[in-house]
Amino acid sequence: MSDPRWNLEDIYPSREEWSEALDEIGRSTETIRQFQGRLIEGSATLCACLDAYYRTVKSLYAASSYASMCYHEDMRVGETAEMESRAQLVGTDLSQAASFMEPEILSIGRAQVEAWLESSPELQEYRHALDDILRRQAHTLSAKEEELVASVGLIADAPETIYGMLANADLPWPTVKLSDGSEVRLDQSAFGKHRASVNREDRRLVFDEFFDVWRSYARTCGATLFSQVKRDVFYARVRKYPNSLALALDGNRIPEAVYHQLIAQARAHLPVLHRYFRLRKRLLGLEDLQYYDIYPPLVHSDRSYEIDEAKRLVIESVGPL
User: Fold this and answer.
1) Which of 56, 117, 145, 207 is the most exposed place for a label (fewest CB within 10 A)?
2) What does the pLDDT read at residue 180?
3) What pLDDT is stored for residue 1 in this prediction?
4) Element (H, E) at 183
5) What does the DSSP 8-state code read for residue 273?
6) Separation between Cα atoms, residue 233 and residue 320, nearest integer Å
């Protein structure tokens, strides 16, 4: 059987090389700062700045992904938690360094940017990015204000970080004994596996024990969620959006009406979901259907899949797309 764990050496051969890559990102960040106040010089300067920025962002994605995956192997390990934090700090520094770009591009104006795009084949690669910047003019602040907003990134991820540490490292997960006599520490992954047990009493036990733990930390979770909501409201107000929903959707140019229509259609077709639940209840031979009954398979199979075979099947299944 192939090793089911991810091979992080595909990204960096060692943590030392990852650290060197972060140092290089820091040097590239300083290079980006040198373009401040110069974008008006012409299409070549703008293109060079965008090249440097997106090249650095691409490197940061790789470094951040590596740190995040190391961290999520076991979030209780201090060394990898430090890696995750270091990558986040480097990312915030990059955001601050590049915060001048959008205000400067907007000061150049759409007409001049369009003219540069027409005359510069190299700049064409950034047409979509530039168009996004220009269309968000009403939500873009001055260079100094943008830098200040970027610096908020130092604390903006606190709700997610706190929840992640609580859910994946600090919660006192119980050990339960299943009907086959096996004992299972009921953490997140074990819950995902055993909630689909074919034994209904096991499913009931797994649900009761798992959510009892969460219930004990309801106030902490509520406070963390409220912090996330306040963060989103802060960004919406600073960016002059009517609400945080508009802010969240605008990045992909999705009108709020689309979001509300999706919810309306989901509600309108609830009878179809309810029909499915009735069919599931009948196929499982149950008198009543509980939350823990929506996960077990409706047909039995003893077949298991190797990682390589599963990868092949997934790739083949999306082939038509």
Assistant:
1) 145
2) 95
3) 47
4) strand 183-185
5) H
6) 41
| 293 closest CA partner among 184, 202, 211, 179 | 202
Global pTM value: 0.82
Q: Are 56 and 96 in contact (CB under 8 A)?
A: no
Interval 153-187: pLDDT, tens: 889 989 998 998 899 889 999 999 999 999 999 99
213 with 313: CB under 8 angstroms? Answer: no
Runs of H (alpha helix) within the chain: 15-33, 43-73, 78-97, 101-108, 110-119, 127-135, 143-151, 153-156, 158-165, 188-194, 200-216, 218-238, 244-250, 256-268, 270-284, 307-317
What is the pLDDT, as a whole number, of residue 58? 97
Q: Report whether 20 contacts 13 (CB < 8 A).
A: no
DSSP class of 40: G
Q: What is the pLDDT of residue 252?
A: 92
Q: What is the pLDDT of residues 191-203, one digit of tens each?
A: 999 999 999 999 9
Single-letter amino acid, residue 157: D
* CA distances to 196, 221, 238, 243 from 235, in Å: 40, 22, 5, 9
For 1-34, write each residue's pLDDT tens digit: 455 667 899 899 999 999 999 999 999 999 999 9
Q: Are 70 and 63 in contact (CB under 8 A)?
A: no
Q: Under 8 Å CB-to-CB from 62, ≥6 apart: which residues?
A: 11, 12, 21
Between CA 239 and CA 168 the distance in angstroms is 33
Q: Which residues of the chain have pLDDT under 70?
A: 1-5
Half-sphere exposure of 302 (CA within 13 A, CB side): 0
- What is the rounded CA–CA span in Å between residue 163 and residue 224? 7
